[in-house]
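Exercise 3.2. Students should predict the tertiary structure of the chain below and write it as structure tokens, then compare their answer with the key that follows.

Predict this chain's 3D structure.
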Amino acid sequence: MTRRTSLKITDDRERQLEKASEIVAGGPDDDPPMSVVIDAALAHLIQSEANISRARDNLEPQIIQRFNTDVIGLRYRTYIESNWR
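Answer key:
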């Protein structure tokens, strides 16, 4: 990962942050800071990868693949794939 000193907020990224903020918010009047939203998204990604890794030994690949996303997913039984980049 390349370290940068600033984060460019494109229109698409702004929409994603707003949607994520709604998910993280404690209620309709809650407006969580961006750092909390980003932390929650990172925690979710890490936990999702761990869950898929653990499930590989217990579930059929077709079942696990139902939970694939654009970011992470199981391909056959051989590896977990990240398509984000």
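Discussion points: The chain is about 50% helix and 10% strand. The longest helix spans residues 34-55.
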